[in-house]
Amino acid sequence: MEILFYFSISLIAILISCIIFSNSVEWLGARLNLSHGITGSLLAAVGTALPETIVPLVAIFWGISWENMVKVLKGEVDALNSINQISMGAIIGAPFMLSTVAFFLIGLSSYLYFKSGRRNSSAINTDKTVLERDLSFFLISFFLAFLAIFLNHIFHVILAVVLMILYIVYLYKTIKEETKEEYKGEELEDNLDPFFLTKFIPNFPTKAGLPMAEKPTTFLIYCQLVFSLGLLLFSAHHFVEVLKEISHRLNFPAFIISLLLTPLATELPEKFNSWMWIRQKKDTLAVGNVSGALVFQSTFPVSIGLLFTDWHMTSAISYLTFIFCLISAGIVLFASRKNKLTFKTFLLGGVFYLAYLVFIIFKSG
C-alpha cells in the first residue's frame, strides 16, 4: 500500500506541474504576440511534451557518478540496466500513447459531440498542411529511431544528430508556413484558460502600478514557468524511484512498466487539451497539438535516448511499440491525403493500444 501511495502522489504532482507548465507556456506565447499556429503547434506541443522528456533525463542524470557518466557516453550502460529500461520506456511510451490513445480520444470526442449535436459533422476539419507535415516528419524520425535498435553506438550518435537536424528543419518549415490570418496576441489570450497565479495574486502590479486584473505580467508568467519546472523535476525524480521499486517488487520489465505508466501523467495535457478543442470545434489545434508533440517526441527525446542509453531491444513487445506507432500515424496521414479523415480514422488508435495490452498480458501469462 505504501508504494501505491507514493506512486499516486508522484503521479498527481507530475500532472499538476504539467498543467501549470502548459498554462505558463501558452500565456507566454500570447504575451510575446506569437501566432495561433506557432503557439498551438510549437509552444503548446513542446510545452506539454517537455514533461515526458524530463522523466528520462532525470532517470539518466539524477545522482549519476562521473564514472558511470563516462560509461554512458561510451555506450557502456550494462551496469545501469533498470535506469536504461525506464528511460527508454518513457521515451518510446510518449509517442506510443499519442499515436494510439490521444488519437482515439480525438475520434471519440468528435463522435460524441456529433451525436449530441455540438458538431455538425463527424469529419475532422483540421488544416491538412499542418497535419500532413507533422505526420510526415514523425514517420521519418520514428522509423530512424526503430532502425537504430539494430545498430551500434556509433550509428546512434550519427542518428541523434540527424534527428536534431530534422527537428530544426521542421521548426523552420512550420514558422515559414504561418499565415497572417491566424490569431495573435490579445485575440489568443481570449482563447486561453485563466492564468493560475492570478488566483493567488489577484492584484499583482503592472509596470504602470495598476492592478493587472486577470492578465498576468511577463514577470509573473516567468515565475510560474520556473515554479512548474522545479515541481516537475522534483516529482519526476520520485516517480522514477517508484517505478524502479514497482518493477523490482513485481519482477516485471522496467521498460514495460515505464512505457505504460509514465505517459499516464505526462500525456494527460495533450489528451485533455485536444478533447476540449474538439468540443470548441478547433480541430486544427486539437490535432496539431498531438501531431506537433509527436514530432518533438520522435526527435529530441529519442536523441537523448540514442546518446545516453544502449537503445537495444530484443523483445517482440518493444518492436510492436514502434510498429503500432508507425501504422497508426500512417493511417491518419493516408486518410488525410485521401480527404477521408473522420472520427473512425482516429478511433483505430484505440484498437492498436488494446491489441498491445492483450499481447502484453498474453506474453506475461
Describe the structure.
With 365 residues, this protein is mainly α. The chain has one domain: NCX, central ion-binding region (A middle domain of Talin 1), CATH 1.20.1420.30. It is 75% helix and 0% strand. The protein contains 14 helices and no strands. The longest helix is centred in the first third of the chain and has 35 residues. It is globular.
CATH architecture descriptor: Up-down Bundle
- Let me know the average pLDDT: 77
Distance N to C terminus: 24 Å
**Element order: H for helix, E for strand:** HHHHHHHHHHHHHH
User: How many β-strand runs?
Assistant: 0
Number of domains: 1
Tell me the overall shape: globular
Taking the sheet with the most strands, its summary is: none
List the total number of helices.
14
Per CATH, the class reads Mainly Alpha
The name of the CATH topology is: A middle domain of Talin 1
- What are the low-pLDDT stretches, counting only 5+ consecutive residues below 50? 180-187, 206-213
Radius of gyration: 20 Å
Strand residues, percent: under 5%
**Structure class:** mainly alpha
Spell out the CATH superfamily. Answer: NCX, central ion-binding region
Helix content: over 70%
